[in-house]
Structures are given as C-alpha cells and as structure tokens.
Amino acid sequence: MSITVLDKMNASKYVKNWITYDMIELLHKKYPHIISHLTYDIRRATKKDFYFPDELSKSPHYPIVVTSRVGKTLCELISCNPQTNSGPCTQTSKPQSYPVGDDGKKDVSCQASCFNLFPKNEQTGHQIQLTTTYHKDQCILIDGSIKAFMEFPNTRAAKPETRITDIPCGFNRSDHEHPYSYSGIRYHYNKTYCDSFFDEFDEDKKVCYVHWSKKYIGNVILGEYIIKACQALDRYVWTGSTLPGNNMKFNDVEADSKYLLKNWLENIDSGFETPQKKLDNLPAEIPQYPDNIQPEKSFIKGISRVMDNLHKPKPEISLDADKRQRLEEKAKTYSNNGSRPKRSSSDSIQNPEFIMGFITQLTHQEFWRDLALGLGYDGALYLVRSLLKKLAEKLTEKFATKLIGKKIFKMALEQGMSRVAKAIVIKIASKAAIALLKLTASALNVVGVLLNVLMAFELLLSLVDPLKLNNKYPDDFLDDHMFAAEQRIRQETGLVRPVVTFDFLANYLLSQKEFSVFQVNSIIYEAEYFLHLRVNSQGSVIDRGEKIDLEKIDLNIDDYDFINLRLYSQQDLYKYEVDHMKRIKVVDKIKKINYICTAALIISLVLQYFLLVILIIITICVLTYVQYTVLGVEDVTEFANFFL
C-alpha cells in the first residue's frame, strides 16, 4: 500500500514546525532587534497534535510543536506610519510625534521601520511598509492610507481645498471601541472640526449639530448661512483667519525613543532564548497529554509567499462561500447597528426659557392676530402651490447638478456610500425648497420685502458657498469610509481578519535564496518522516519498492543551481515563454526585412543607383544591430509594438 492523504497531512504538520524552528533561528541572527521580541514556545509533540511513528521520537529531528505570537512590542516595532501633514516620509525623515485630533492623544510617524526593515517590492519597486495596530492580543494589519486620511487633513485632497485640507487637526481616534471592526479603531468628529464649520459639538454622540437658536432664527429671519458668515467675519477680525487655531504641531521624538534608527537597531531583548537553547532544555520523554495544547494555525497554506497577495492588482486568493457569507452578515449588522447614531432634532440642546416664553405668548392678543394672518397666508399659499412645486423642482435640479462637481460628493460615490451621497443631496436641495417657501410666504406682507432680500441673499450664499461650508462631511462618513478601507484590506489579503503572524512576517524578511533553502529543507524533513513511517493511516504496510543506491547515480547537477531552479514559479516560466515568443517573432520580422533589403541592394547595383545602395546598406546595418539588441534586452515590449 502507498501513503495516504492523512499521512501527508500529518507529515506537513511535522515539516511546518521544524521549518518554523529553522526560520526563527535564522531570522534571529539576521534581525535580533526584531525577532528577539517574538513570543514563541517549543515543546515535544504528542499524538494529540498529529500522528507520527514512535521510531521518529528517537531521531535528532523528533516531532516538536512551535507556537508563536506577534506581541504588542513587536507589533509596534514593525509598524510604519509613512505620512505627515506636509507629505509622505522619506529615507532621511526622522520620527516625529504629532497630535491625533484634539483630545490629547499622541502618535508617531516616519518610524525607523519605514525604510530599514523590509526590502523594496520586486514587482512594483516600491518600499514595503506595514501599518499595524494591536487589538485583542493580536497584531492587525490596517490600511495606512485611511490612517493618513483621518489623521492628516492635508492628505484628503490632491490639491489644497478650503475646509478640507486646511482643517486645524485630524479626527479623534478610539483604538479599542468599534465592536464590528476587526481593528477596533473608530474615528470621531471633534470640537475643532465642528468649530471650523461654526457648528456645536455633541460630546456624547461625537457629531456636529446646528444650535437651536441658529436653526430657528436662521429659518425664520436671517438664514443659517448669513449667521455663520457673521461668525466667520468676527473670527477673521480677531484672529486673521476663519478657522480655529492650528493644532497640527510636529515634534521630534525624545532621544531615548525606540523609534529612532540607532535605538531601534540596538533594541534587543536580552532575555530572549534561541530555539536551539529551548530545544536543548526539552525533556527527553514525550509529555503525557499536556494541558492547554494550542498548536499555531499557520497563515500560510503550504510554502507560498503571502507578499504577492498584498501587491497584486487582482489577488488570486479569494474567500470561500461560507467565509464570504459570514462577512456579508457582519457587514449588514455593522451597517444597521454599528454605525454612529443618526442625529435628529432632539440632538440640539433646547432652552427651557424658550419653551416657557412660547407658552406665555398664548395669552397675548398679538399671538391670535398672528395666527389669523397665518391662516390667511395658508390660503394664499394654496393658490400658488402648483407654481411653487415647479420652481422647487427646478431649483433642486440645479442644486443637484452643481453638487455633482463637489469633491466630497465624488468621494462618496467612489466609496459606494449611497447613504452619505443621499444625505448631501437632501441637505443642499432642502435649503432651496425652504428658501423658496419663505420667499413666497414673506411676499404677502410689508416686512416680507426685507425678508425677501435676506432669503435671496441666503440662497445665493448657499449656492455659491464662499466659505466652503458645504465641504463638511456627513455624520456617518467616517464610519463608512473606515469600513470601506477595511473591506479593501480583506480583499487584498484574502482574509476576514488580517492578523500579522510570524509566518506573515518571515515571508517579508526572508530573501528569495533563503526561502528556496527552506523549500529544499521541507523536502528533507518530509522524507525523514516517511522514512520512519511503516504503516499508513489505513493500517496497511507501506510498500516502498526496490532500494535505490544514490551513490551509484551520477546526477551531474550543482546544488546551488538546483536551488536557483526552485526560485521560479509556473507563472515565471509562462512569462518567460511569452517573452521568448515575442523575441522570436521580432527577429523573424527583421530577417524578412533584411531579405527584401538585400534583393533591393542587388537590383540597385545592377541599375547603378549608388545613392540608394548606400541607404540600403545603412538600413541593413541598423536592422542587424536591432536584431542583436532584441536578443539581449530584458524588455522587448517597445520592439514588439513597432515590428509586430
């Protein structure tokens, strides 16, 4: 009988643990400032972990179980925040401390890990940088671009835009708050952001709202935009700007900070035990059913490079049906219950004196007189209702057409956030309808002349928006934007919860040659497992066939060349074949042109067209040079586009 699938699964577990052991040993020698902070453990394997023959226990490579975890310290050391409010970090940038929002939280950007940990990506040529956060005892991979968008206002648009890129500070961040986010991160509006748009800030719901006095007085007399314009003028007179004071102040980190390159390289845990030392301290006998055995679930299935997934335009790994269904259910739950509560009229702080004053008005004659006038207005409005409806529709259409060109509306559509886009349209279009109602109603009395002027001015200001107050994000924008970014990370990694494990980290730190050595070692470990296996999982004796003496076989192959052969995948070979066929076609095309030129040269010599002879000889020389260039150049795309 032969080896079964179950036998191969057990062998892969045996191989995986020894490969992890070798990786920790090698990477600790190369990156002691990184791997010395890895939390890991080694113990003898038992039959509860995976099956192995008893004879294998006496081998120098007896079955072991290696468990590892990227702790908080290591997660912080490998994380990179590659952005500042003035632009991206560079190779010479020093770590800087900056405020996150206006609640006193601090963070660091341009850490030493940004340019001194991982090499450049071989496919794109870009520097590999990981942005991580530590949540629920796991190191989580997050989107660095969304972190920059939320914390650095200058990154929110390609060019400077009023009240988008010049906001005095970023949004506030809560690191372990969101129940439906795998990273636990949730961003909130803050008082500085609300003050930038002359709104009030609700401490409980973390949203901006219009004060009741501004809302009701604005809708009855002046207009909300006019009131805010007066506030902007007052602020400009006293401070020289219509925005609050700038809080985005970057400071160099302290001299003993672990994020400085020198300290980062010297930050080696002296208490770290090497794998060899831990292996030497293991007991000689196999433990009898130890408690709390939790073998590590590898991030990598087989021996593959997860680095390719994060940088492919279309990742090959995708979620299966069950995982996708669970993810969609979580997304629905998040959208319905996890988003920030909608703001209603009850959010505004009502003044009790205003309510008591309104009740007192019921006893005055002026109140009943105004009520009678109101009934008269209603009758007049009923007569012009059809005209009012048509005008409101036209104004709403014009408002919506202008709104399509707004930056924030485009962003909402690009992110697929229909609720956000709808909220923006309703907010702007409703202003037109309300203003039109007030203009029609106020035209029925003498005071209405002044109200007409004010409302027309309010409508004009809302349309032109000189203060760019319409650039304010809706209440749910931050949650929706963060959710879209996390979905993007899930799609790129092929994981519902992108956790940074040791396997994940090793695939970035190992070079191609080192990785190929581990591939060869995995074959050796697998052979050792099956060498000691006498009976397969079905209880049948394994038939190994005739014994082959390798010493009598002359392979005539260099070990290093054999390892290099393993560096190329099937996709690499396919690309090589496609490139090779292009070269052959280009060379054949040049040969055909040379044949035609040779025939033309002979005819020109016979007819004694010596000038044409010289031109043909030059052409043949150029084509010959191009022919040999095509055979030696790496990329033949331009030649193929020209000749084919």
Automatic annotation (TrEMBL):
The keyword Transmembrane applies. Pfam families: Baculo_p74, Baculo_p74_N. This is Cc_p74. Residues 4-239 form the Baculoviridae p74 N-terminal domain. GO terms for biological process: viral life cycle. It comes from Cotesia congregata (Parasitoid wasp). Keywords: Membrane, Transmembrane, Transmembrane helix. The chain crosses the membrane at residues 443-464, 593-626. Signal peptide: none annotated. InterPro entries: Baculo_p74 (IPR007663), Baculo_p74_N (IPR013613).
